[in-house]
């Protein structure tokens, strides 16, 4: 029986950060992104609910909470509570982190990423 590749906080965090960046609808490698980033984040205010994070990482609520806590601890996302619901939004540091490390994640976690997106289309950041 084939075993599924183990996925850890790092790759789950990568999935979440990339989903949030996709919501911003930006090119991570555009010129002068650092100068534009604060206004982009303020204008677009993209966020995900905890349920959307759970579906993105395709895991249970315990792992979802751990992934969110790890991302918050690293300053890559912020969590706001609105009307009893949590909204997770990417920070400036989160955008710059994923810009810097996406290619690294793609190489190191190739098997886990392929397994994760086996039954659905790959997101924009994985397309060649």
Structural description of this entry:
This protein is mainly α. The protein has one domain: Arc Repressor Mutant, subunit A (Orthogonal Bundle), CATH 1.10.10. It is about 55% helix and about 10% strand. The chain is built from six helices and three strands. A three-stranded antiparallel beta sheet has the order 1-3-2. A hairpin with a 2-residue loop joins strand 2 and strand 3. Helix 3 crosses helix 4 (about 60-75). The protein starts with 8 loop residues before the first helix and ends in a 12-residue tail after the last helix.
Strand order across the biggest sheet? 1-3-2
The portion of residues assigned to helices is 55-70%
Low-pLDDT ranges: none
> So what's the CATH class?
Mainly Alpha
Specify Rg, calculated over alpha carbons. 15 Å
List keywords for this structure.
single chain; 128 residues; 57% helix; mainly alpha; Arc Repressor Mutant, subunit A; 3-stranded antiparallel beta sheet; 11% strand
Sequence-ordered SSE layout with sheet pairings:
Elements: H1 9-24, H2 33-44, E1 48-49, H3 50-57, H4 61-73, E2 77-82, E3 85-90, H5 92-108, H6 110-116
Antiparallel strand pairs: 1-3, 2-3
Helix pairs in contact: 1-4, 1-5, 3-4
